[in-house]
Amino acid sequence: MTAEQNNGYTHNRFAVAPMIDWTDRHCRTLHRQFTRHALLYTEMIVADAAIHGNRDRLLGFSSAEHPVALQLGGSDPAKLAEAARVGETFGYREINLNVGCPSDRVQSGTFGACLMKTPGLVADCVAAMKRSVSIPVTVKCRIGVDDQDIEPALDDLAGGVFAAGADALWVHARKAWLKGLSPKENRDIPPLDYDRVYRLKRQNPSQFIGINGGIQTLDEALHHLNHVDGVMLGRAAYNNPMLLADVDRAIYGDARPAAPVDAIIDHMCAYADAHVRQGGRVSHIARHMVGMFHGAAGARRWRQILSTEANRPDADSGVIRRAYAAVQAGSADQAA
């Protein structure tokens, strides 16, 4: 790819997608144990909330999570510019505009995937955000919505945001249907069209274009990187965090080994206990760890313990250690 020429954004060859209710600070803390380099995204934060809400609760994060990008939702250029400034003061490395979420919530606010219908407004939003911050401003979109022709729809959106100064465009390679499909169905039913994203890249050789949608493995990610500049995984990384352990080697050529599982468990236990001391619950962390031992001996018992015992009001990190002991016992039994 020739995006080396564009804007210094090229190190973000792999990202974990922003996912509402999933990619909170606890999830990002877990994912960072597996990969030093992957770009991690927040959940979508509505611009009004970033401006007027409890900023520490909504936007606070640890520097140990870096690199982290803040995804914003909204359609008012002035509000998005202000929210972007707030995000920059919190230390985020990038501000991303959501032009892909199809939920009823964003439709009622006329943002998210709805913005695919108004590429000029999206460009205005990007331009306002670029003027307000010194960090990269990017966009995450669909290839189109509803009955749009995906050729001009995506071209118009991409042309507008790049002219406005966007540093990257991440494209979920399927349409969003704003009426008739739930957000969950919108992740599966509209067919994927990776070739459409590849065509967009060929038309914009000096711009960073990343791909998202339905990518399940790092082998698939490497295939896509023959055609685009970056790959973003969502549910595959969340449901099987161990997948991230090979990202640094496979995607970034970093041969240093990932942290051993014992060390990750120790880290997350210490993190969970600190969270409990601050008034939180172990379940806030454990829910993101349920998929860690996907397919391994003892994984079922791991899931059972985390899904039940972690919800008890008096739970501490001992829940995680007991669940891990079940995995170790399962592995020992399998080896015997």
Summarize the entry for a quick read.
By secondary structure, the protein is of the alpha/beta class.
Q: Mean pLDDT, nearest integer?
A: 93
CATH top-level class of the largest domain: Alpha Beta
| Main sheet attributes: strand count, strand direction, barrel closure | 8 strands, parallel, barrel
- SSE string: EHEHHEHEHHEHEHEHEHHHHHH
Q: Count every helix, treating DSSP H or I runs of 4 or more residues as helices.
A: 15
Helix content: 40-55%
Class of secondary structure makeup: alpha/beta
CATH architecture of the largest domain: Alpha-Beta Barrel
Strand order of the largest sheet: 1-2-3-4-5-6-7-8
Rounded to the nearest angstrom, the radius of gyration is 20 Å
Shape: globular
Beta fraction of the residues?
A: 5-15%
Topology, number of strands: 8
What is the H level of CATH, i.e. the homologous superfamily of the largest domain? Aldolase class I
Q: State the low-pLDDT regions, or none.
A: 1-6
Domain count: the total is 2
- CATH fold assignment of the largest domain: TIM Barrel
End-to-end gap: 48 Å
GO molecular function, one term: tRNA binding
Enzyme class: oxidoreductase
Cofactor: FMN
Binding site for FMN: 71, 140, 172, 212-214, 234-235
